TrEMBL record:
Taxonomic source organism: Roseovarius pacificus
PROSITE patterns to which the protein is assigned, alphabetical: RESPONSE_REGULATORY (PS50110)
Keywords: Phosphoprotein
Protein name: Response regulator receiver protein
Alphabetized InterPro entries for the sequence: Bact_response_regulator (IPR050595), CheY-like_superfamily (IPR011006), Sig_transdc_resp-reg_receiver (IPR001789)
Amino acid sequence: MADKSVLIVEDEDNFARALDIILTRHGYTTHRVSDGDAALTALNDNPPAVVLLDVLLPNRSGFEICQTIRQTPHLQDTRIVMMSARNGQAEQRKGMAMGADAFLNKPFPTSDLLSLIDELTGKDTHA
């Protein structure tokens, strides 16, 4: 996958800003939105390679967005990484069942995030 774009869907501004900085410094093009409706608009306007998707969002949940992505033909190649601060295994199972490619419990090590995004985008980490 040549596309190195990541849509960050996170309503906690400081956390979203940190993710944006980390991913940009690692060579990704990012776009940030803070609610479910804006996420759906961004996905349709410019589908990213990866969506970094919080579970709890204003307007629409991350679960609903995940399900919409999986049901939308032009988004079928989009990789989804769901994340939550609630650390519940039930949430993780639900996210994976709805079609997420991975699930991260907040807080998570930066190295775990970067390794996962690199793997999902096919980025050569040895370049």
